Prior knowledge:
The chain has helices at residues 9-24, 45-50, 53-68, 77-83, 104-107, 127-139, 154-160, 168-173, 176-181, 193-214, 216-223; strands at residues 38-39, 74-75, 92-96, 115-119, 144-150, 228-234, 241-243. By secondary structure, it is of the alpha/beta class. It has a single domain, classed as Beta-carbonic Anhydrase, Chain A. Helix 5 links the parallel strand 3 (92-96) and strand 4. It starts with 8 loop residues before the first helix and ends with a strand.
Amino acid sequence: MNQNQPTQPSRRRILKQTLAISALSVTGLTALSVPSISFAASLSKEERDAMTPDAVIEHFKQGNLRFRENRPAKHDYLAQKRNSLTGQYPAAVILSCIDSRAPAEIVLDAGIGETFNSRVAGNISNRDMLGSMEFACALSGAKVVLVMGHTRCGAVRGAINNAELGNLTGLLDEIKPAIEKTAFSGERKGSNYDFVDAVARKNVELTVENIRKNSPVLKELEDQKKIKIVGSMYHLAGGKVEFFEV
């Protein structure tokens, strides 16, 4: 095969597999293992456009399962790089934390050209992030906005502890509403990681609410069922990405 002209069959296989697994989820059979597959090329416009928001979410669930079972897809990153040179058609935009232990593309087993990625401490949504997500969905055709928090989040812990440091102080202020709105019966301190994780989860929920509230563009796309805005939590222990009910 000519290395400079990667073909698409393997990508089509995994998309068909995603749709089949999505159907199996109704019967509770999604725990079945799926053979490792090669990603020989990046997503094409036709492939991305054929996916529903639910199919994209299921695709990421299966990618996370592969990650947890240490059987990632056989990504040909050089082929993906070449294939996406003249255009990109990501299926989702991910808003996640900068934490080095929570790289969204790796834990979802995604390849080059598959996701837009926005990272900021505490996975908060400001005007710049909203504009980026509007570009991803309204102009570039992404089907899912995925907000991904994670356990043992240092930014959340800093907000709980009222940490202050230059511009970080203002960023942590954006997380503090989640502290007040978190129902928790135990010790409400940054040293209690159960509380930190509860606040991190609430912070994701509020971020999803803020996206809908502050971006009429994304809210309209979701109301039209063209996209889904979804929250999730990545668990450092075990590696599972828990998708909130959609």
